[in-house]
Design goal:
Distance between the termini: 19 Å
Strand content: 5-15%
Helix content: 55-70%
Bound molecules: P1-(5'-adenosyl)P5-(5'-thymidyl)pentaphosphate
Length: 217
């Protein structure tokens, strides 16, 4: 059984991550590639309960390290119970947000120490990392306008000021620059169809590299 590939979709609010994760999964399934979509925070029953707590607009004032630990607590559950078994069974897993979101939001956005987040991440994930990370890049004004036109409800992060979201965007771009082998930045301001084409092109290129034996793990 060939191990499946692990793809993460990252980016700011309203960048189109959920839309693109679902489209990519449909395309791969049509091509006969068994695929599983999961999300973070969430992905297991208990991690979904942590999600409710973390996104609750009433729950403000976390110690930065507490928040980081809670994200990684849910992530360890999601990897162990959902992601890893699917990969081992040969399925491609698409995860709507993963560890880069913690670095971008809690680190670049909320200004928790990047070094602390990285060392918590290493201890929690023990080297487990995506084969490909798609970073959907969008001006936060456009992204937040999309989420606001969809629903009046705003979670804890959507309520943050533009400056916060600008730092998050710069954070994702810095992550991509630091790890260009793993990360691909996609312009998310384009139409759904155009973004989907760009996403698929990145995935196909990465799959080709794997076929040619250029493992990067
Ligand atoms: N968080 C998460 C952290 O702080 N640290 C962490 O470690 C993690 C994992 C919840 C929050 O948690 C924080 C960050 C988040 O604030 P979430 O549920 O993934 O994470 O939250 P959002 O990113 O806010 O999810 P959204 O659903 O709002 O955004 P998506 O998934 O990027 O966008 P999507 O696909 O739902 O689309 C949003 C709207 O835009 C339209 C869609 O139809 C939809 O209405 N749309 C487009 N419109 C025009 N053109 C396009 N190309 C479009 N693509 C989508």
């Amino acid at each position: 059984m060939t191990r499946g590939r692990f793809i993460t979709v990252e980016g700011g609010e309203g960048a189109g991550k959920s839309t693109q994760a679902a489209r990519l999964a449909e395309t791969l399934e049509r091509r006969g590639i068994a695929t599983l979509v999961t999300r973070e925070p969430g992905g297991t029953r208990r991690a979904e309960r942590l999600r409710e707590l973390l996104l609750d607009p009433e729950e403000t004032g976390w110690e930065p390290e507490t928040e980081v630990l809670l994200y990684f607590a849910g992530r360890v559950e999601n990897v162990a119970k959902t992601i890893e078994p699917a990969l081992a069974a040969g399925r491609t897993v698409i995860c709507d947000r993963f560890a880069d979101s913690t670095l971008a939001y809690q680190g670049y956005g909320s200004l928790a120490s990047l070094e602390t987040i990285r060392s918590i991440g290493e201890a929690a994930l023990r080297g487990f990392r995506p084969d490909l990370t798609l970073i959907l890049d969008i001006d936060p004004k456009m992204g937040l306008a999309r989420t606001r036109s969809r629903s009046a409800f705003q979670d804890r992060y959507e309520r943050e000021l533009f400056d916060y979201h600008r730092r998050v965007r710069q954070g994702f771009l810095a992550i991509a620059e630091d790890d260009p082998d793993r990360c691909a930045v996609v312009d998310a301001a384009a139409s759904v169809g155009a973004v989907a084409e760009a996403v698929l092109a990145r995935v196909e290129a990465r799959f080709e590299e794997f076929k040619a034996g250029k493992e990067r793990r």
